[in-house]
Description:
By secondary structure, the chain is an alpha+beta fold. The chain contains 13 helices and 17 strands.
Amino acid sequence: MQLTEQQVLALAPDAGSASNGKKLAQAKNWPLLGRSQRALWGECQGSGAKPYQVRLDMADFASKCSCPSFKFPCKHALGLLVLTANQPQLVADGSEPAWVAEWLDKRSDTAARKEAKAAAKAEAPVDEAAQQKRAEKRDGRARDGMAALQVWLEDLVRNGLARLPSEGAALWEQQAARMVDAQLPGLANRLQALADLPGSRPDWPEKLLAELGRMALALRAYEGLATLTPALQQALLQYLGYSVREEEVLAHGDTQQDEWQIMGQVAKDGERVRVQRTWVQGRHSGRRGLLLQFGVGNQAFAATWLPGTAFVAELAFWPGQGLRAMLKGVAQPAAVPTALWQAESIPQLLLRAAQALAANPWHERLPAVLTGVIPLQQGEHWCLVDQQGQALPLHPPAPWLWLALAGGQPFDLAVEWDGEAARPLGLLMEGRYHALTGALR
């Protein structure tokens, strides 16, 4: 298991858990250690007479411990992973104890039942008349809300943007609340996200107009929804906030079986909801995907995805032009990759981004592995540069960790590109993955 301590501690729910996990990563605390192709386990001696039983699924690094902690992963699971990463020779291959095998089998059974339930729910007969009535009622609310938003946008531009920094967030929050009432949560979230933009950066008027333009395009496109291709219809509806149930995705979504490399992860902390974006890419299909998770408050994310690792599984993709996907069935562990797959040049990334934007004007982000790049400071800003002199701007903060790891040498780099700047996700050096992202606020 070619993991680094940094990778393991990135799973910690807080700094205290990370610190306590490191303290437990000593052989004297573990009277029993073992691993198999699909699991890692150990018994950690605590203050009581009976040691805690710790088990981890090597496919997705989910864990279970007999300790009373409500944190996931707990300090014992972190300690076991840190110990295995730093001293793998201490953890020998062996047969899974019953308490490990039973837990893994139960996870597999739960996933199978979930998939069967989703298929049954998707195929169950529906009251088409009632469904049509609900759809017409929502469509009426949505059209009224979008008509009001169109007038508001026109007034906003007509009156000019110079006054917006002094208006505060109330202007945007009020309009966002109206979109919630119109059952358009996608537009509501986008309006709330714009509240802090006026006056926040030198080019804020250009950035704001671009976002308002995308919003206005969506309003106009909805008027001719029936004339759009089915994929573009789905992309537009998801932009506005029409959700697609996970059951529908599992039952009818486009699927892809492959060995998936977790190329990077970005977490964003909000006031109430945390969002985690995990980017994956298929080794054989070349397909890329986004595993999106949400957590309320301190609630743990449903799945644990460790950047730099890989798993074999079938993914189901949401309809439309996007990359969002979800796990279908159970993931199986794969060998930890020693290199980032699908490396491409900066011009190739920009061409792919242009094609994605042409197919879907509400497209937002793309993952990529850029070949042989280094960070370079230009004035007050940073960019990444390849060996041909091509460059892309970088999102703050300054890439000091990347500089310290690479020492000025070019490496393949996993990034997230949003059309404005690249965000470094991670790089592989000497077979070890190093994450370059932290929580965004």
